[in-house]
From TrEMBL, chain A:
Coiled coil: none
Family, per entry: Belongs to the bacterial solute-binding protein 1 family.
The keyword Signal is annotated on this UniProt entry: yes
Signal peptide annotation: 1-26
GO cellular component: ATP-binding cassette (ABC) transporter complex, substrate-binding subunit-containing
Name of the molecule in the record: Carbohydrate ABC transporter substrate-binding protein, CUT1 family (TC 3.A.1.1.-)
UniProt xrefs under InterPro entries: SBP (IPR006059)
Keywords on record: Signal, Transport
TrEMBL record, chain B:
A GO CC term assigned to this protein in UniProt: plasma membrane
Transmembrane segments: 34-54, 97-118, 130-150, 170-190, 233-259, 279-306
UniProt protein name: Multiple sugar transport system permease protein
Matches recorded under PANTHER family: ABC TRANSPORTER PERMEASE PROTEIN (PTHR30193), LACTOSE TRANSPORT SYSTEM PERMEASE PROTEIN LACF (PTHR30193:SF44)
Membrane topology designation: Multi-pass membrane protein
Keywords: Cell membrane, Membrane, Sugar transport, Transmembrane, Transmembrane helix, Transport
Biased segments, Basic residues type: 20-29
Pfam families: BPD_transp_1
Region (Disordered), start-end ranges: 1-29
TrEMBL record, chain C:
Membrane spanning stretches: 12-33, 77-98, 110-132, 144-164, 185-207, 244-265
UniProt protein name: Multiple sugar transport system permease protein
Topology in the lipid bilayer: Multi-pass membrane protein
Organism the protein comes from: Nocardioides terrae
Subcellular location field: Cell membrane
CDD domains: TM_PBP2
The ABC transmembrane type-1 domain, residue ranges: 73-265
Alphabetic keyword roster: Cell membrane, Membrane, Sugar transport, Transmembrane, Transmembrane helix, Transport
GO cellular component labels: plasma membrane
Organism superkingdom: Bacteria
InterPro entries for this protein: BP-dep_ABC_trans_perm (IPR050901), MetI-like (IPR000515), MetI-like_sf (IPR035906)
Length: 426, 315, 280
């Protein structure tokens, strides 16, 4: 049949056109005349951090003509699915940014290279408790880069108006927070706004304040136990929202940044935020808006969990050593400090923290933020294989329901424990 | 891909055939030619649609999971017995059914009302008609964004209005009790085009003389609607509600962007749940098994629905 | 087809209902436009006014500058155009074959159009992912094109099949008697008659692939290869730092192409095709 032949020819021409058209520029990473190209998938999202990261890449590329690093933009929001598909599809980047609680599963699936003997000076520069968060089956599967802690920010004008003295000192107790929030609640102003639409990370982190660890054991054998220690912080928040009515319950369903927007409008005297929120305050607060970063919250201790951002190398990368060298370069004090300042996060290495201290001249709450590094410790949940799934499917809805006054504290404890069994058993 | 969206713009294949069917058997045109013409279409469909589908069904009976150099083992019904005790999956199923039935029903009622209005000689009809079609042309992701703006607790009009009236801020997508109803409204909105157009076309096909005869007999417009319009539309209604139900049960994009299943899993549709199982946690076999369960249940419900409808038609 | 003129009360009720529909359907769109034109400050203040105080195009420039919107738009365009061309080229002869020859293929193909609707994408997408990986088409735009072509094909076939059937075979026979060759008959006589059908099919293929999200989500991983819906979905989520203004502007820009094509299809919708569509 002539028609089919014509159709076939036309079709194949069109396919060829489409393929070459789209395929242009999709060169595989790899060697071009001895030159190595590495893909670095960065999750930086603030303009300043993106720039700082790109500057580091540019500096590396200038210093290493043979090993070219390509900056690839990723996103925190989709990184878990994206890495799963990338690893599975064999298209993972060489250098991978993520967080310690997220990489355990990938490490156990064999996707991350052992960096134990490949990293240089940073080994001694980062405190041991933080190395523990990136060690899986005795292998170091990532370099910890930046950490966040949770900080209370205060609208000092509102606090003063309510007759509350702005606290000073090393730590601030949950009881004092509760009293202050209560005192500052009046005429449509709530004492506290706490953005907890994604509550699990902060609840597990604050759990350590009262010695609540949630998990015992590690890997696949871990178990969840929820007792008084674990429930201490959730119960306090619940009391503030529903007994004292000093915490705006709408904020419990909102993200931290939404609450920050309202905080800037003077709706709350206090807000609990990730330390990075200081940036919004420093950059967007009106001149007549007076704020302060308050001392870290404490129960029995001021411990929070260290869940550092991480840099890993894909096990399937053809150039693991070169990629590890880049991570070393990225971890240099002056580089890490730049990124930390861009994101308003705490650098994991002591030398970089010193650098940040010098650069920021103790302004904008930085002393409080940097001081919280001492309170960051490894928490058991990070070395649990199915933690991400438990977090998404069990813990987040359970905490949300509890904070939404839908279930009791006992039911919360039961859901967390039973849910773990179904997630980990299946 | 929701391919059926424009079901209504294709002319019906069956109408004009009758005059021609005897001619199709002319000598000199063998079935072999048809195969040649169809091959470029059939081959890719076989490779990229039929085969993956069969393979997907098979994966539902294996332990396929993410990992470097993982082997796939046939595990029989193990995935399904695990699913039986997976409360989360069933709760997502329940949500999926509420969503699919809710959206399909409301869509049908709303679209029928609109179609009836559009069938009248009203001014501004063109506006409602154009507006009712626009959601079809919008990417589902954009639809989700539009509604996120509308529902936004800080700057959205609904929450704003509520604040102005003194009821305080509303976070419709973030609140446990309102999230599912809120996304159902979006589902109805986005599904209006194909339902309205299909029903309108059906209405225009209703024989006008029937109405006239009934009117002469003194039947009011409501009675005529019940006894003439609805029965005449029966086939169209069954077809479009069945399709809508399938599409709604399988919908993904809209919810992925609107709520991603939150808050607290209150809008976790089964497709989203299965996607997470596969591409978030790497349990491909289990995800495929969930897909299989979904297909079986959809088929079951449709069979039941179609049988009861068709039985009704016989009477 | 109204018989007696409806009473004023009924008419009023009808207009109120129609107005309700117009508001329900139109308001979200107007709100999108309004948000896109508002300044960041006005959005932050939570103004519920439809008309911005000081309309500005800042959000559009911010959107275009921030996300990799151009790259994604270009990718979407390449994918959608390639899908459209391939689909029409493949579907046209196939639809002709289906319509002109009564073979077992007809019920099978048309049945497949319906059956394939039943299966959730999740079932197909895992094996598809692995097949594309084997073919080195994973995370490649051509791979996405192949998938899109295959998934719009059944329905396009069905559409075109209907159009071919409206062209009486007698015309071809008459031309053949006049001595025109088979190919010439097809090209110069049948093809022009099929133009509206081809246009409609092409627009359908274009809009479907322009809007598609789930396949792209799973099959495309490298940021510089993502399509517009993917970029927009990530715009939404960027770690709570959503800037609603630029987001609205980007969403608006992303809708324009399909709206334009839709406007073209819409005229066809109001034509005669519609009336006969679902009878029987």
């Amino acid at each position: 049949m002539k028609i089919t032949r014509i159709a076939a020819v036309t079709a194949s021409v069109a396919v060829a056109l489409a393929l070459t058209g789209c395929g242009a520029g999709s060169d595989d990473s790899g060697d071009k005349g001895g030159k190595v190209t590495l893909k670095f998938q960065s999750l930086a999202f603030q303009d300043t951090t993106v720039k700082a990261t790109k500057d580091i890449v540019a500096a590396w590329n200038q210093a290493h003509p043979d090993v070219h690093v390509d900056y690839v933009q990723g996103s925190w929001d989709s990184v878990q699915d994206q890495l799963t598909t990338q690893f599975q599809g064999g298209t993972a980047p060489d250098i991978i940014q993520y967080e310690s609680a997220g990489i355990t599963g990938f490490a156990q699936q064999g996707y991350l290279a052992d960096l134990g003997d490949k990293l240089g000076d940073v080994k001694s520069d980062v405190p041991d408790p933080i190395w523990k968060t990136v060690t899986v089956d005795d292998k170091i599967v990532a370099a910890p880069t930046l950490l966040q802690s949770y900080i209370v920010f205060a609208n000092t004008d509102l606090l003063k108006k309510a007759g509350v003295t702005v606290p000073t000192g090393d730590t601030w107790s949950w009881d004092d927070l509760r009293a202050a929030a209560k005192a500052a609640t009046k005429d449509g102003t709530y004492g506290l706004g706490f953005g907890l639409s994604q509550p699990t990370a902060s609840m597990l982190s604050f759990g350590l304040n009262f010695g609540g660890t949630y998990f015992t054991g590690s890997g696949d054998d871990a178990d969840v136990k929820v007792g008084d220690a674990e429930l201490a912080v959730p119960e306090r928040i619940h009391q503030m929202a529903y007994d004292d009515k000093s915490l705006d319950p709408v904020t419990l369903t909102q993200s931290g940044s939404d609450v920050m927007t309202a905080f800037l409008k003077g709706k709350y005297a206090l807000t609990v935020q990730g330390s990075y929120a200081a940036q919004t305050l420093a950059e967007s607060a009106p001149a007549d808006f007076h704020w302060a970063a308050l001392p870290v919250l404490a129960g029995d201790s001021a411990d929070q969990s260290a869940n550092p951002q991480t840099m890993s190398v894909a096990a399937e990368s053809k150039h693991v050593d070169d990629a590890a060298d880049f991570i070393d370069f990225y971890m240099k004090a002056e580089n890490l400090a730049k990124v930390a300042e861009g994101d308003w996060l705490i650098p994991a290495s002591t030398s970089a923290a010193e650098q940040v201290k010098t650069d920021t001249k103790d302004a904008n709450g930085w002393p409080t933020i940097l001081a919280s590094l001492d309170h960051l410790v490894a928490a058991p949940f990070q070395s649990v294989t199915n933690y991400p799934q438990w977090k998404d499917q069990i813990a987040t809805p359970a905490f949300q329901k509890y904070l939404g006054n839908d279930i009791s504290a006992d039911e919360l404890a039961k859901e967390l424990e039973d849910g773990w069994k179904s997630v980990n058993g299946g | 891909m929701k391919t059926g969206n424009v079901a209504t713009i294709a002319p019906t294949p069956d109408n004009p055939t009758t005059s021609r069917s005897r001619r199709s058997h002319r000598p000199g045109r063998s079935g072999r030619d048809a195969w040649f013409l169809l091959l470029p279409a059939l081959l890719p469909i076989l490779v990229f649609n039929v085969y993956p589908l069969l393979r997907g069904i098979y994966l539902g009976f294996t332990d396929a999971r993410a990992g470097l150099n993982q082997d796939i083992h046939f595990t029989g019904l193990e995935n399904y017995s695990d699913l039986l005790s997976n409360d989360l999956f069933w709760s997502s199923f329940r949500i999926g059914l509420i969503w699919a039935f809710g959206v399909t029903f409301l869509q049908f009622v709303a679209a029928l009302g609109l179609a009836l209005l559009l069938n009248e000689n009203l001014r501004l009809r063109w506006l409602a008609r154009t507006l009712s079609l626009v959601p079809w042309a919008m990417p589902p992701v954009v639809v989700a964004i539009v509604w996120r703006l509308v529902y936004d607790p800080n700057s959205g009009p609904i929450s704003g209005l509520s604040q102005t009236l003194g009821f305080g801020q509303l976070n419709l997508l973030g609140d446990f009790s309102t999230a599912l109803p809120a996304v159902i409204v979006v589902g109805v909105w986005v599904g209006m085009p194909q339902t309205t157009i299909t029903l309108l076309a059906g209405l225009q096909g209703v024989d006008g003389t029937l109405h006239e005869a009934a009117a002469v007999d003194g039947a009011g417009s409501w009675r005529r609607f019940l006894h003439i319009t609805l029965p005449e539309l029966r086939t169209v209604i069954v077809a479009i509600t069945s399709l809508n139900f399938i599409w709604n049960m399988n919908s993904f994009d809209l919810i992925y962007v609107l709520t991603n299943g939150g808050p607290g899993g209150r809008t976790m549709l089964p497709t989203l749940f299965a996607y997470n199982e596969g591409f978030r946690y790497g349990h491909f076999g289990v995800a495929a098994a969930m897909g299989n369960v979904l297909v079986v249940i959809i088929c079951g419900i449709l069979l039941f629905y179609l049988r009861s409808r068709l039985k009704g038609a016989d009477k | 087809m109204s018989l007696q003129r409806p009473s004023t009360a009924v008419r009023t009720g009808q207009y109120v209902a129609l107005l309700g529909y117009v508001v329900f359907l139109g308001f979200p769109l107007i709100w999108l436009l309004s948000t896109a034109l508002k300044s960041t400050k006005e959005i932050a203040l939570g103004s519920i006014r439809l008309i911005p105080d000081a309309p500005t195009l800042d959000n559009f420039s911010a959107a275009v500058a921030k996300a990799n919107l151009w790259q994604a738009g270009f990718n979407s365009l390449v994918v959608a155009v390639a899908t459209t061309v391939l689909t029409v080229v493949i579907a046209l002869p196939a639809a002709y074959g289906l319509a002109r020859y009564r073979t077992i293929l007809r019920p099978i193909t048309l049945g497949w159009v319906l059956v394939s609707q039943m299966f959730p994408t999740i079932l197909v997408i895992i094996p598809l992912f692995m097949i594309l990986k084997t073919l080195h088409l994973l995370d490649q735009l051509p791979g996405l094109v192949v998938v899109y072509v295959v998934y719009v094909l059944p329905f396009c076939l069905w559409m075109l099949f209907g159009f071919v059937q409206t062209v009486p075979p007698d015309i071809e026979e008459a031309a053949a008697i006049d001595g025109a060759g088979r190919i010439r008959t097809l090209v110069s006589i049948v093809l022009p008659l099929l133009r509206p059908g081809i246009v409609a099919t092409a627009l359908f293929a274009f809009i479907s692939s322009w809007n598609e999200f789930m396949f792209a989500l799973v099959l495309i991983q490298t940021p510089d290869k993502v399509t517009l819906p993917l970029t927009l979905s990530r715009f939404v989520g960027a770690e709570g730092q959503v800037q609603l203004g630029p987001l609205a502007a980007a969403a608006l820009l992303a809708t324009i192409p399909s709206l334009v094509f839709f406007a073209l299809i819409q005229r066809r919708l109001s034509g005669g095709l519609l009336s006969g569509a679902v009878k029987g």
